[in-house]
Amino acid sequence: MGRCYNCSGYGYTEESCGSCSGTGHITYYENGEYVRHSCNSCYGRGQIKNDCSSCGGSGETDDDR
Hints:
Layout: E1 2-3, E2 12-16, E3 25-30, E4 33-38, E5 47-51, E6 60-61
């Protein structure tokens, strides 16, 4: 077993949040003013963690690159 090449052994990959375009917050107009809240999809991080498709989230693979 070796460290997963795709996720560098972390077990996940990150991508920019599609809901907030990577900003970490959502801004909308309500009752005559703009309101800004943390994004519910990424919890304000701006990034979404996905289990690595190569190792299934374990961080290790049989492939010793």
